[in-house]
Amino acid sequence: MGSSLLYAQGTPPAANRGDKRFQFEVGYLSNSVYLGRQDSVTTPYITPMFTYYHRSGFYIDCSLSYLPGNAARLDLGTIDLGYLFQAGEKWSGELYLSKYFYNDRSTAVKSSINTFFSSSLAFDASIITLNGGVDIGFSSGTDWFVHYGISYPFSWGEEQRSWSIEPSIIAYAGTQQFASRRRLRRPPPGFSSISISGANTFNVLDYEFSVPFTYDTDRWGLSIYPTYAVPLNPVAVTLPNGNTLFKEALSNNFYGEVKLYIKF
User: Fold this and answer.
1) Residue 62 lies in a domain
2) 3-state SS assignment for residue 116
3) Is the whole-model pTM more than 0.85?
4) What is the DSSP string of 57-104?
5) By residue range, what is the domain housing residue 129?
6) How confident is the model at residue 126 (pLDDT cuts 50, 70, 90)?
7) What angle (nearest 5°) sits at the alpha carbon of residue 60, between those of residues 116 and 42?
8) Beta-carbon count within 10 A of 133 CB
9) Measured between alpha carbons, how far is 261 from 219 in angstroms, rounded to an integer?
10) What is the mean pLDDT of residues 44-52?
């Protein structure tokens, strides 16, 4: 059966409903990319995470993301509360609410968002899995997003030791007030009054192609999430007279995340 999780959003590994366990993981993200957008400075993260899964399907986790390199610092803390569910043999899904605590010096594209809600639903159509959902991002304003896509799951092995790979294509659409707030808090020198055009328009924001791979045992596991993102519809910074000061530079990018986890 296909996974109910959309890997590009970085949601935690799913526990089977009926399981009750703790899980500790350490992950490395090569660059903090959000909806295909990235800062001019690469933002990698080393992230330890602790998760508790309840047999009802609820889980709670907390994590700290460390930014290595010359600007070494704790850049982000996160608390997630989620619910994994199964409806028959074909439908599965997830709801989760995340609270972000970004460092004031963070350059991550997502750093203006302080709270995030996501809902995902998947339908196992035997050959492929259909994924979709609605997300809400809260910053100084509110952004609405939808995501939809298809994946093709493969899995093999035994219950105590299994392998899976799930090539997927996912599209994200929504508004971009999160970009507006981030730009406006760092206005260009000499300009006290600027605005962001396109931030309130609902557009397709990016397409993401990924091939998540997971090796899972009854005690530990390894997950690898390589992603190629194609961003669309850049916002533009405009002056009071309507002239464009500059337009957001977008380019296709490749990034990946590796997670090693243990269960107890």
Assistant:
1) yes
2) strand
3) yes
4) SEEEEEEEEEE-STT-EEEEEEEEEEEEEEETTTEEEEEEEEEEEE-T
5) 7-263
6) confident
7) 50
8) 20
9) 9
10) 97
